[in-house]
Amino acid sequence: MARIYPLFSSSKGNSSFIGNSDGGILVDAGVSCKRLCDALKANEIDPSVIHGIFITHTHSDHVSGLKVFTKKYHIPVFAQRTNLEILAADGKIDPSCDVTEVDGGEIAIGDYSVKAFATFHDTPASCGYQINTPDGKKVCVCTDLGTVTNEVDMHLSGCNLVLLESNYDESMLKNGSYPYELKRRIASDHGHLSNADCGEQLKKLMRAGTYKFILGHLSQENNTPLQAESSAVNALAEYQRNSDYILHIAKPEGSGMAVAF
Asked: Residues near 171 by Cβ (< 8 Å), separated by ≥ 6?
């Protein structure tokens, strides 16, 4: 049975493993190689079983450990063409590693298949990933999006589990210490998804047949796990938690949490 392991999920570093001890894929490598390896091994996942690393975009909290990790394990890297070009130009991928563009459709890798879908974020290119597992399940990892487009909604709908961004509480962001321009960027259509917007999407996903959720990429300055959780539960007030739906909150790092779907 495949599981998702949200190893790191915050504005300071992101990486999720989808699979089991026999194999799987990694989405992003936004912490040091050592921390990433420690988190994998704490979950009894040997890095050598990773079939590929799928990069969502090139911000440091998603790629900071990529160079050393690929140099050590020579794992293939998958990303949008624009992002592969940026990563290569910045020396973020070891030259010995294979690279593959994800713009052209579904990628078959091991017993998994992966499809990228474009997201709105303040980078030259960014995407989320829909992953089909060997046991016929479907999971999405989707963070760093300022708005939920029709394309995003289409790829999230009907999945068995969705890891969705719940980045900031609107009041905390508005009254926080960030400069005005940064606040405006975060709240823009190319920034991040608020707790309230996340809750609206959760309701749509429930109606489309998705009942398992992980809230991820919580800001450590403009959000709290309790705020994100309460907002999601309130948005789903017509449903019964742990009966109609399952909700988890990804911890910033090394939680050891494995969620079956």
From this structure: none
CATH code linked to domain 3-260? 3.60.15.10
Q: Which two tokens stand for residue 261?
A: 């779907």
For residue 71, the Cα-to-chain-centroid distance in whole angstroms is 23
Residue 2: name the closest of 178, 183, 138 by CA: 138
Torsion angle (degrees, nearest 10) of CA 26, 72, 254, 216: -30
Beta bridge partners of 241: 245
> Residue 133 is which amino acid?
T
Secondary structure percentages of the chain, helix, strand, coil, to 5: 30, 30, 40
249's enclosing H/E stretch is strand 246-249
Element (H, E) at 69: helix 66-73
Domain range list for the chain? 3-260
The CA distance from 126 to 122, in Å, is 8
pLDDT tens for each residue of 126-177: 999 999 999 999 999 999 999 999 999 999 999 999 999 999 999 999 999 9
In this structure, which amino acid lies at residue 92? K
Distance CA 133, CA 125 (A): 26
Report the distance separating Cα 261 and Cα 16, nearest Å: 15
C-beta atoms surrounding 75 within 10 Å: 22
Adjacency order of strands within the sheet including 23-27: 99-101, 77-79, 50-54, 23-27, 13-20, 3-10, 259-260
Per-residue pLDDT tens for 203-225?
Answer: 999 999 999 999 999 999 999 99
